[in-house]
Amino acid sequence: MARDLRDDLEVVDVDDDDFDLDDDAIGGFVHASGGGRDGDAASRQPCRRCTGPACSNSGPRAAEYPLPADFPVAAPLDKVPASTGASSITLLDIQRDRLTGVATEHWGAPAAATAFHAGLVREIYATELRVEGRGRKTVPLHRVMILEVSQYLENYLWPNFDPDSASFEHVMSMILMVNEKFRENVAAWTCFHDRKDAFSGFLWRVIKLKEEDRDLNMAEKTNYLLFMINAFQSLEDELVRETILQLVSLKLWHTLSFGRLQMELCLNPELIKKWTKIKRREEAKKAGQTCDASEMLENKFLKNLIEEFLEILDSKVILPVNMAVMFLRPLVADVAVVAKCHLSALYTHEKGRLFAQLVDLLQFYEGFEINDHSGTQLSDDDVLQAHYSRFQAFHLLAFKQVPKLRDFSLCNIASIHKRADLAKKLLVLSDVELQDLVCNKLKLISEKDPCSGRRDFLIEVLVAFFEKRQSQKDAVNALPLYPNEQIIISSYKPQIKSEWDALKEHDVLFLLSIRPSFEPLSPEEAAKSTVPERLGLQYVRGCEVIEIRDEESSLMNDFTGRIKREEWKPPKGEIRTVKIALDTAQYHIDVTEWTNMPDLLETIDFKDTFVDADHVIQSFPDYQVTFINSDGTENLNPSPPFKIKKKKFVETYIPGDPGPYPQDKPKQNSVRFTPTQIGAIVSGIQPGLTMVVGPPGTGKTDTAVQILNVLYHNCPSQRTLIITHSNQALNDLFEKIMQRDVPARYLLRLGQGEQELATDLDFSRQGRVNAMLVRRLELLGEVAKLARSLHLPEDVSYTCETAAYFWLLHVYARWEQFLAACAQNQESPSFVKDRFPFSEFFSDTPQPIFTAERANYLMTKQAKVVAMTCTHAALKRRDFLQLGFKYDNLLMEESAQILEIETFIPMLLQRQEDGYARLKRCILIGDHHQLPPVVKNMAFQKYSHMDQSLFTRFVRLGIPYIELNAQGRARPTIAELYNWRYRELGDLPYVREEAIFHKANSGFSYEYQLVDVPDYRGR
């Protein structure tokens, strides 16, 4: 939850433009400063442009760019607010800036031995970074970016940091540099790993800043808090974890009031022994000293932050706090943070909407249904039992010690545990009696609390503690499945016709009720009105598509078997009829309002993975490869295919004869895989989790296809499930699989991809006339067929005019008679079938018998490779479980673009067998440095961090992965724009050897050019 506040502070205190970099910056300083920020210090290699030891650059640093003597140097932006200064920097900005010259002189040279000047750090902080005044101005982002590009932290601040003698400006400068690294989403703690003891001292200096006799301004407080949130968010780093976790240990309870401490120890008796040991240890340490344990820095740090938050809240400054850890929740409840926030003026103010949402989020986590100490989830029965236990204790206390609450103590709990009923019962108490009840008898808050004299505050604390809260499961089930007009109001771009024609079953639509005003709004009214008021938008409701039909009522995009593939036709006309299913929960709301695997493979048949014997040797550079025959003798002239056994014995064998015809020859692989790709293939074949990070152009898809090919031939009885994020990637992967030696009868593609209609129709004006004439003849043929079925002459189909008379005299007349007869025989359902006048006309209608069953049999019994998108897997999960769908391997492409829940659902498309999971292999392929999952809802993106994929989470937590390290898509100079993001991304040999990569592109003066595209008419 510390992550939530960090995101909010970024939104509140940094302009949106501050997060963008222009094209020049991407082409210049990002490449110059990005090397070595992949989090792996051991992977850093000597810089190509440096003559000294290994540095963290893959290119020249900003300070190393040559500066002519007469080059103009820009003045610092120390007087320009961050909101008005530049929000991005270019290579020209870096070269012209005064700080670049300072960096070159003092810390820019690779082997510089310049003495450290503490005064320079103070001067830079005072003139470039410090914000004067007490307003909500932020630190100039432009200046921070210049210093970060010059490696101010790595080359000057950190190497010369001394925890005992470092100045305030030195510590704050390091805080700003670390925050900037987090903002740029690069590794922030890597440079600290060379001095672990000094880093611990640095963190304690940061913690002690609040204790120093120095008044921090709002910008410094904000960056200080942002740094602490970043530190709490980096607990996966052992260096950070050792110090930060000391702030949230059991010692934190030293700051609890006496009553709250007694309550928590009674509720958690297993902690009494630990608490006693802590008290004894501290008493032994402070023997002969007068300091109180509650005054120890690590004990009171978080409480001081909460108290500072409440002080700022009284001053009506938006600065939300949101924390909940094991021993912190009692402290938050003891200070009654939520109750004080609810009673603050900002909570109900129009401008405090974001603050109110954060308070509600804090209240949610304060009452989170989990055991703080064991980490186990509380069931509904556990939560209900705890609620009744609290209320029974309250009843007993009220009966014995509060005479005015005798009647209350005899009431049924179910009749008074609601907020309104409970508050009404407390009206009989005076202010003094209420304060005595809450502070002394119930001990919910301390009597020394500054708000303990307020009646509304006391009632809020008591009611919040004893009211029955809605369980999380009930709250989730009560929510509508689809958002309504109160949840999502935004502008929708016009949808083109092809997108509407692509609608299919289970797609989600939104129904809008729009009642626009007949009179246009005046400019003053339009400025004051909201978007729904201007557009006349009343309601928004979600629904699910059941089926869609065209203008002729023909079923469109149906994959249930009702329409055969060969009978499919393009949709007709411009009108679409959609049958939908409304959300049940939302409908009732509206009605109410309206009224790791041990079984490793010992031998792997790599089939066509290796092109020749040299390819095998090159693929395993760390092994002594020996080629043997099937009888164990050494093979001096090996040829593919190969089988690789333990200890890298490579056995050649002769594959079976596929047949005498050329078409019988199996398709062979022509890709010469790199050693890293071979390692990924070997890992993917073995049971367990395999993660492959594929930078652009490194052959992720080819590697995935070869894993599937080898897996099919080594484990022919197993079924593999392929999941991708987009239909385009799935089609690309599936098409490449079809080019390998995998029989087409074992391949199954589920769902609907992007359909490109292959047609030879002429869409010119004359072509449209011809198409209409053809359509006329088709319809007149249907008229003749209908006339034959009614035993009438076929000349009625001679012209459209005769067909119209035929409709009126014979078809419509029979239909009216049929409807009248049905109205008189409503109790006989068989009457419709027996008396339908056009039965003979529809006698040749195709009947879809067993089509769906055949498709399901193919999926569950025949197919060995089943491919679908993650969306299709989520929609059809219930159907897969009902059909008993089974699979052994899961391969997921584009996994860094898939939400965590969308990654998790495909793992649960089958039931467990005897309590054990059938899944043997999980292969995740993606690139967490590229596009993250798209989450348009800002609340989900910023507060819940749903834009982090499971693949990215695994990489962040240190799960081992294989990173492909050779690209073959771009010129080496273009690849340098992004290869600093990866550990050892190089080029394939043909990229440097082929002439096509050295020739100029048509129309380009340079190898790559950046084109500035300004806003067009303000958009």
From TrEMBL:
Q: Which residues form the RNA helicase aquarius beta-barrel domain?
A: 489-602
Q: Where does the DNA2/NAM7 helicase helicase domain start and stop, copy by copy? A: 681-937
**What are the protein's GO molecular function terms?**
helicase activity; mRNA binding
The RNA helicase aquarius N-terminal domain is annotated at 99-316, 327-470
GO cellular component term of the entry, any: catalytic step 2 spliceosome
Protein name in the entry: Intron-binding protein aquarius
Q: From which organism does this entry originate? A: Zizania palustris
The taxonomy runs: Eukaryota, Viridiplantae, Streptophyta, Embryophyta, Tracheophyta
